[in-house]
Amino acid sequence: MKTKPVLTWFFAGVFAVLGAGTASAQQQADANAAPARPDVKNVGDWQVRCFPVQNANPCDIFQEMADQNTHQRILSFSLAYAPSMDRHLLQITVPLDVAIQKGVTIQTDSFTSPVMKYRMCSREGCFVQLVPDNAMIASLVKAGPDAKVNIWADNGKSYGLKFSLKGFAQAHDDMVAQAKAKAKPAKDAAPAKPN
User: Fold this and answer.
1) What confidence category does residue 34 fall into, taking pLDDT thresholds of 50, 70 and 90?
2) Which CATH architecture has domain 5-182?
């Protein structure tokens, strides 16, 4: 899937500064000869994960839902935080065979996100990767206990993929505190010095 040139530039810059997201953190850990496992703490229905890598956002909160019969992943939700920019990085993964042009929305009892576009698809599914505004995260912190990611299939039918916000606020606060303690500042995030 191709993105518009402006969006491509934007995401390339943002992901470079953010260390290409927590997925990159996990890939870096996997690339080591003897990769260390992340520190994982369960908070409600969320996992707070901190990966043993040095980047701008080493921690995330994570939740994954799978089909009870096939154990195939239906939805995963990862939210990381980059202290040097005071910004979050959101990654949502859904199954293939979605209507790419329609994107996804997050819906809670009191909040509906703007439409979020897919960034790419692979054998593992289709991915939304973006830097949401902090107001969206604040809305999720206040909402609950249930939420859903709305997707549309190729045939036009919509589906609400349910996930839990139980423990989201506490998991988020824990993850932000750990990210602040463990993050390596992004060189690209530093303001340029005047000549």
Assistant:
1) low
2) Sandwich (2.60)
